Amino acid sequence: MLSLLDAxxxxxxxxxxxxxxxxxxxxxxxLERKVSALIQDRPGPNRARIGFIRLGGLVHLFGDTLKMxxxxxxxxxxxxxxxxMAAPVIMATVALxxxxxxxxxxxxxxxGFSLSFQLLHFDAGILxxxxxxxxxxxxVILAGWSSNNKFALLGGIRSSAxxxxxxxxxxxxxxxxxxxxxxxxxxxxxxxxxDLLFGFLPKWGIFIQPLAAIIFIxxxxxxxxxxxxxxxxxxxxxxxxxxxxxxxxxFGTFFMAEYxxxxxxxxxxxTLFFGGWQVxxxxxxxxxxxxxxxxxVSLVGAALVLFGLAALSFRWYQRKKGFxxxxxxxxxxxxxxxxxxxGLGALGFLGLVxxxxxxxxxxxxxxxxxxxxxxxxxxxxxxxxFIWVRWTLPRFRYDQLMFLxxxxxxxxxxxxxxxxxxxxxxxxxxxx
Amino acid sequence: MKQxxxxxxxxxxxxxxxxxxxxxxxxxxxxxxxxxxxxxxxxGPNISxxxxxxxxxxxxxxxxxxxLTQRDDGTVKCVACMMCATVCPAHCIHIEAAEHxxxxxxxxxxxxxIDLLRCVYCGYCVEACPCDAIRMDSGxxxxxxxxxxxxxxxxxxxxxxxPQDPSTARPLQGMPPLPGSEAxxxxxxxxxxx
Lengths: 432, 194
Fold this sequence. Notes:
heterodimer, A: 15 helices, B: Alpha-Beta Plaits, 5 helices
């Protein structure tokens, strides 16, 4: 029988695992537009404003969302209505149900209470990702077929071919890693990555299995249908591929699913190859032991960063003074004020901690929060790499894609398994 | 039989590192990263014009919205000779002439209308004008209205358009010299009609 507290915790976790990727979507869209602009020597979105608040173009997202929701939904007459409607739902659902297997922090142990930061902690762990992520292609294929449009259909066909050729190396690349760690449970894998390799390198997946890491990352890019593997979309040759016939919020759902899939792929890559929630050189026990010092250091650091940002926005305000000749001119000043107040708040919190002393439950909670922050930071960094790659590389040609999948990545992933097996046999034992 | 010359173009062989794709990918990412950082710290090329807040000066000779030039006393310089209306390939100029008080000027335009929707901005009217009365040096390229009728710009409207460079506002006064006559000898007395 589930107690009330357990039910509440499960509910909170469900909410977190749904809302976290969804709330990252607008941020990533903004990041995508801004980073692409800076890469291409443009200023990027900076016009939309509420009063004087522009936040460097972040306000555009409200406009975009409103537009998408309020647009008329046009459904082609000859589309297969049920599948046409089902496709975006499948995409979004599948993208959202992968994340719950990913641990966001180590298990939090408090007296008489422990909290796991995974929603689904079963032993199959990583297999859940493989099982579910391959369902994603059904959304693409169904969308392409049910739209009754030749471009959409071509996009769907391309996507299915691409999926088949990249699923194999994706699955095989991970086998070497599983052989090394000897477990499928993602939290276990992350815990093992906390050790040190040769005494100075964190034992992250990328250091013990570099080839697998490269193969997995490439295949994860292909799996999310993002550039340079966005053949299913291929806007230069296929109008916009599988979602040609979608508009309004149905298109918005695809769009959202793409970004959620990006977050999920980043989370899985971070978990497997970049140490998950592990703070480098600090395992959970070390974090708990040194929590008071670390908290003080991080609060001082946060205050310094906030003051620096405040100074930067004040300088920006001074440089742009009178440029617009309206209320927008005070924007920088307001930001500087808010940031300075936030910095003072961090210092005040530090004072509070120093005055009241560090409570006993503070250590584990701080460790969990620090690990969570570290993990989210890793996710964001990988998302940034996704965006960076998209705006650097041109799309692969279809034959190049097939060549890469079948003739390069597949043999390499098999080779990786063999080499890993030999190494494990030579060094004698699994967990070395 | 004529010999056909065949030129074989050798495809450049990709080196090993190029064939792995990885190294070129990292090189490319390095380039984009350099641009990203440069623009982030504000040292980028910065060629964008944030349009409504700052406007570009159009180059001299840019054919923008038309304007009618004035004599020194502010009257319209046009003598309603119909040259521009005749040469206009889009037939967008409509002129109704009227008798001028000054017998040397003879005519002035009672009505001078340009349909900006029909105009193709070829600049022939400016070339054809014998007395520098119509110009396209306003540098205005945003021509907007909510009704078709509002795109027809009348004489007052044309007189109110300001040139982009204020120092070129005044046209040459007087009529252009006739062939064989001395330059500037046909300067006109000030007209006194409205």
